Amino acid sequence: GIFSEADEKELNELISNFEKETTVEIAIVSIDTLKVSQEKFEDLSLHIAKTWGVGKANKDNGILIAISKGHRRIRIQNGDGIVPIISNEETQKIIDNKIIPNFKNENYFEGTREGIFAIMELLKKN
Fold this sequence. Notes:
This protein has 126 residues and is of the alpha+beta class.
């Protein structure tokens, strides 16, 4: 995987504390290049978001962060309950400004963590 055990533990704690505070569920999935072609990456991340049922059903307030190191792709899938709070433009800004610069230097943990912090800030503001 792209995260060490300590990284995963820290990210999980961040996410579960935030869920307790806000009910918003954030999930991170790392997708192996063997599992999906580059063209199908977005479809698969949407499929995972739907099948895993990220977010509370009645609120649809889940966020899925799908990362493919091999394909050099990242997708943040916002549930319908999140869309009015965080626009696609804002999501894209987080990817461009927080996540990608770190990923380019192979700092997957830092990039993911900074992205999550930025998402949390936006959600708390609104």
